[in-house]
Write a structure and sequence with these properties.
It contains 10 helices and 12 strands. By secondary structure, the chain is of the alpha/beta class. It has a single domain, classed as Aldolase class I (TIM Barrel). The chain has an 8-stranded parallel barrel, surrounded by 6 helices. Strand 5, helix 3 and strand 6 form a beta-alpha-beta unit.
Length: 253
């Protein structure tokens, strides 16, 4: 049986890890290098590193901090933020990333997904989708959740995987930072339109939220969270032990 993955997320701004609610109200949390090392040693299955203002500021991802984080961890690293072309893929992979997350750059140039999948393999291309309910539909938002594209999220996810994205990260803006549980309704809809691994992001507030996620939606491959891990409210070894006790397959150190 394939083990489920627990993935901490580092949202990095100006070289520091930050966190907000509903993609707004950012506050300083910690040093990304120290936090990345801590998660690697604590049994996290992967780590996600987002340069969260690269797209909105129209710049490339800062690779100096990325290199320092990558040098301190021994788990797969997914990196995103300001990824607009194959040269960005090359630069980020050369800095220590194992997978590259595309979001706004792929919205602007959907062909990037297929180009990157052909060059690096679909396992390297992660389509990150920031989605929010608008008028009874799930809309795709760009530029760090600041811009409503008007695109239907389910149609976009189906298209992205058809073009070669090997994994989906669904970031529910509605539940981001609220800590009342993952967006099960939105995640179920996504699982119905794709066969690639789906990572749930946004809303985790306690261990039971992960239990509910994996028991309700066994098609979801991983749970991603930030605040509850950053502030020590949930320790990854404790979370994995609790999930394993419920019969949910986990990689245990």
């Amino acid at each position: 049986m394939i083990t489920k993955r627990i993935i901490p997320c580092l949202d990095v701004k100006d070289g520091r890890v930050v966190k907000g609610v509903n993609f707004a109200g950012l506050s300083d949390v910690s040093d990304p290098v120290a936090l990345g090392r801590y998660y690697s040693e604590s049994g996290a299955d992967e780590l996600v590193f987002y340069d969260i203002t690269a797209s909105s500021e129209g710049r490339r991802l800062f690779t100096d901090v990325l290199r320092r984080v990558a040098s301190q961890i021994f788990i797969p690293l997914t990196v995103g933020g300001g990824i607009n072309g194959l040269d960005d893929f090359e630069r980020v992979l050369a800095s220590g990333a194992d997978k590259v997350s595309v979001n706004s750059g792929a919205i602007q140039n959907p062909a990037l997904i297929g180009e990157a999948a052909r060059r690096y393999g679909d396992q390297c291309v992660v389509l990150s989708v920031d989605a929010k309910r608008v008028g009874g539909r799930y809309h795709v938002f760009a530029r760090g959740g600041r811009e409503d594209t008007g695109m239907d999220a389910l149609t976009w996810i189906r298209r992205g995987t058809d073009m070669g994205a090997g994994e989906i990260v669904l970031n529910s803006i509605d539940t981001d930072g609220v800590r009342r549980g993952f967006d099960l309704e939105m995640l179920a809809a996504v699982c119905d339109v794709t066969d690639v691994p789906v990572i749930a992001s946004g809303g985790a507030g306690c261990i039971d939220d992960f239990v509910t996620l994996f028991e309700t939606l066994p098609r979801v491959d991983a749970g991603l969270a930030a605040s509850i891990f950053h502030f020590g409210e949930v320790r990854i070894p404790d979370l994995k032990a609790a999930l394993a006790r419920r019969g949910i397959p986990m990689r245990i150190l």
